[in-house]
Amino acid sequence: MTAHPAGMTYADYLHLPTLLSAQQPLSDRHDELLFIVIHQAKELWLKQMLHEVDLAIRLIGEGDYAPAYKALARISRIQSVMTLSWDVLATLTPVDYADFRGALGTSSGFQSAQFRELEYRFGLKDPKYLDYHEGGSEGHRRLTAALEAPSLWDAAEGARERLGADSWLAVYRDSSRWFELYQLAEKLVDIDDALAGWRHKHLLTVERIIGNKTGTGGSAGARYLASTLEKRAFPELWALRTHL
């Protein structure tokens, strides 16, 4: 058991001097701080979701489903918080954003290695996103590892095969027989549903602030985001509903 150091404070434990000094606006505009805080908070939540998905994949592989459900439920709860944070960013008007947008240079949320890593860990493995991270960088290394590692969907498929269900449609048609798999599938749909909601709110927020302008870093902005709305990490679980 680890002893608690005598005299440790809240600020010490959370490394608050380091954390709170990480917001460094490059302009003198009031609203740039909000933009930085929102995106840094998202990266922290992404870090936690990656932590949870790694645990869930391991637990599913071990057949330990109840704690895996807890980790997956936590992911979808975090997604809800992240989606709500777009409402805070949406208080930034087009005029407010234009005042400091130039300070962002070529940086873009499109370059978030953790977001792509999370997609890979879910099972959305598009290798083209490796090209946005320089070879040898930490982001490139992590994405390469996630691309090669078993995904959450791989873990779910492995569980279905081990337990002997012919297909996910069969699981849903006899949910009482395959209840562990049925619960697992619904937890995955919760995550996919929340991811779709996050994408949609992201699109609306970008449209509200910059319309159809090109995004920072040269991305297509709202047009690119609109193209992602149909993406599903677990498409088989959506498709089977038509056949029930």
TrEMBL record:
Give the binding site residues for heme: H202
Residue positions annotated to bind substrate are F35, I36, V37, I38, H39, Y97, R101, T216
What pathway does this protein act in?
Answer: Amino-acid degradation; L-tryptophan degradation via kynurenine pathway; L-kynurenine from L-tryptophan: step 1/2
Q: How is the cofactor bound?
A: Binds 1 heme group per subunit.
Enzyme Commission (EC) number = 1.13.11.11
Q: Which reaction does it catalyse?
A: L-tryptophan + O2 = N-formyl-L-kynurenine
* Entry keywords, A to Z: Dioxygenase, Heme, Iron, Metal-binding, Oxidoreductase, Tryptophan catabolism
- One Pfam entry for this protein is Trp_dioxygenase
Q: Which cofactor does it need?
A: heme
Does the UniProt entry include the keyword Oxidoreductase? yes
What Gene3D superfamilies does this protein's entry cite?
1.20.58.480
- Fill in the subunit field for this protein: Homotetramer.
Record-stated family: Belongs to the tryptophan 2,3-dioxygenase family.
Q: What does this protein do?
A: Heme-dependent dioxygenase that catalyzes the oxidative cleavage of the L-tryptophan (L-Trp) pyrrole ring and converts L-tryptophan to N-formyl-L-kynurenine. Catalyzes the oxidative cleavage of the indole moiety.
Q: What is this protein called?
A: Tryptophan 2,3-dioxygenase
Species of origin: Sphingomonas swuensis
The taxonomy runs: Bacteria, Pseudomonadati, Pseudomonadota, Alphaproteobacteria, Sphingomonadales
Q: Which gene encodes it?
A: kynA
